[in-house]
Design a protein that fits this description.
- The chain is mainly alpha-helical.
- The chain has 29 helices and five strands.
- The protein has a three-stranded antiparallel sheet.
- Helix 4 packs across helix 6 and helix 10 runs antiparallel to helix 12.
């Protein structure tokens, strides 16, 4: 495998990289050589290896030399190479290590004690989310519990709302010695301690220097040290407002929790639901914490009471909130039928569509499952909703389809949205429509009854272009559509999958998604014992 890493093209040896990282231990004579080879293959390759380690759940047995590579990824890489996935995978490997090992390895990288502790705190939150005890690893700060209707939210008692007044010197937080993700960690810590206009601007600068906003990679405590800005807030515009303020004006903004027209919210550490709630008990939460209200009302609560109708007054509250924070509802497009009430045209609907139009390349946050509420979509006017809606539909289908071999009529489900095939084709043909909206239209067209083959044949170039742009949502959607509608017996389908693999040869995460198609096809045998429905009899035969 070492020889394969040395001689093969990077696109042909990702498997060797994964096995080298999981098999070669610290005492092995080849560990140093293996680390050098993985570094030399470049950041995308290393991210692919990390992704394989995490997906195979082997991060808790990673060797110290692999742990060092993960730490290096966070403290040495340029910010513009960082994504939520790359940071999350590196943090997962760090979280799988013993704290003593982490401290020793981090010490060889000349990290300060405070810098090292920030990385460990961030990583260990991953272990907590996975249900592994970490109570002795990080000191938990004091919390403040606030009631929002029937929901109790826990906030940091000492957070940014306390205003400015720290006596800690800013020299303690020197960003000039930090690189990559670690700069964001230090900038957040600096703002928490200093709460100055300059430290706020440092955080905004770090958030805008990466391909994706990395706040979701922080621990809950770290995120709570900075305002929970709504996703629809344009950070560059927010920065411009703060740059024009004096230090005194900024301090007043923190106290009033408002920057211009933007509301500064506190980030809650946890939420807990109390008592025997009814749906209308969540009305207050809709205004105060809309994203949480959506997940509770349409997700967790709907599982407990699947047949209970949502009160019209609560719907009106959601509609009013959609005007204030439309990004929350774009991220959960699967529940829009409950807000739109099918063909109803309302200002909330227009606001959500405009939000989707503003960010045509943004992928929705798939934070939690929500029950599907279909609506009649108005095409082509609401084409901007196609990508987030596709994410919601596929998430719903994957929840309902326990295995890829169970029958699930996706085409029948899509009839509730009344998408006409000719409308989807027209959107896909329109060169003036953003690429990912065109790609979503193609996938929806493929999923319609009897339209898979002809839609794929006509628009495969659009799908390949989406893959080139590395849009994970579309790559996942394409893989899903082919796995349930395509056939390994159709030459056009297998040829397309081959071209898709070629396009994704350097996108190791994308390749893993497409690999699922081959995994399913391998199980769909065309041997006579299968096609004659005699498999069970053949297996159980004692002859």
């Amino acid at each position: 495998m070492i020889q394969q890493l040395e001689e093969a093209d990077t696109s042909e040896c990702i498997g060797a990289g994964f096995w080298v990282a999981t098999i070669i231990g610290d005492g092995h004579s080849l560990s140093g050589r293996a680390a050098h080879l993985l570094r030399s293959k470049g950041i995308p390759f290393l991210d692919g290896v990390f992704s394989g380690i995490v997906d195979s759940h082997t991060e808790r047995s990673a060797s110290r030399w692999v742990l060092r590579l993960a730490i290096e990824r966070l403290v040495s890489s340029s910010s513009d190479t960082l994504t939520i996935r790359s940071v999350s995978n590196a943090l997962a490997i760090i979280a799988g290590a013993d704290k003593i090992d982490f401290n020793q390895v981090a010490g060889t990288l000349t990290l300060s004690d405070e810098h090292r502790d920030l990385i460990w705190e961030c990583a260990i939150s991953k272990r907590r989310r996975d249900g592994v005890s970490a109570s002795n690893d990080v000191q938990e700060p004091e919390l403040e519990h606030v009631t929002h209707g029937s929901v109790v939210a826990s906030y940091l008692k000492d957070d940014w709302t306390g205003g400015i007044g720290s006596t800690i010197t800013s020299a303690r937080f020197d960003l000039s010695v930090c690189v990559g993700f670690s700069r964001l960690l230090v900038a957040i810590s600096a703002f928490h301690n200093l709460r100055t206009r300059a430290s706020f601007l440092d955080v905004i600068l770090e958030l805008t220097s990466t391909k994706e906003p990395l706040l979701s990679c922080l621990s809950s405590y770290q995120r709570a040290r900075f305002p929970a800005l709504d996703r629809s807030v344009p950070l560059k515009k927010l920065r411009a407002i703060v740059e024009k303020q004096t230090d005194g004006e900024f301090e007043s903004s923190l106290k009033t929790r408002k920057l211009g027209a933007f509301v500064l919210r506190r980030w809650a550490i946890t939420f807990s639901v109390t008592g025997n709630q009814q749906l209308d008990d969540f009305a207050a939460l809709v205004t105060e914490r809309p994203a949480v209200a959506v997940i509770l009302v349409f997700g967790q609560f709907s599982r407990r009471f699947p047949g209970e109708a949502i009160d019209s007054a609560l719907v009106d509250r959601f509609r009013a909130q959609a005007l204030e924070t439309p990004s929350v509802f774009v991220d959960h497009a699967e529940i829009l039928g409950a807000i739109f009430l099918n063909k109803d045209i309302c200002s909330a609907r227009d606001a959500i569509v405009r939000e989707a139009e503003r960010f045509p390349t943004r992928m929705p946050r798939l934070l939690s499952w929500c029950r599907l509420h279909p609506f009649v979509i108005r095409l082509p006017d609401e084409r901007a909703l196609l990508p987030p809606l596709l994410a919601g539909v596929i998430r719903h289908c994957r929840f309902e389809v326990r295995s890829p071999f169970e029958e699930f009529d996706v085409a029948k489900l899509l009839l509730q949205y009344e998408m006409k095939h000719e409308e989807l084709v027209s959107i896909a043909d329109d060169l003036g429509t953003p690429l990912f909206q065109r790609g979503a239209a193609v996938v929806f067209g493929m999923l319609q009854a009897g339209a898979f083959a002809r839609t794929l044949a006509r628009f495969e170039s659009i799908l390949l272009e989406c893959a080139v742009e590395r849009n994970e949502l579309l790559i996942d959607a394409i893989s899903f559509a082919i796995s349930i509608k395509g056939s390994h017996q159709e030459l056009s389908c297998t040829s397309f999958v081959g071209r898709l693999f070629d396009v994704l040869k350097h996108d190791y995460v994308g390749r893993r998604k497409v690999q699922s198609i081959l995994d399913i096809w391998r199980e769909r045998s065309i041997a006579p014992v299968t096609t004659s429905n005699a498999m069970t009899k053949w297996i159980s035969s004692s002859d």
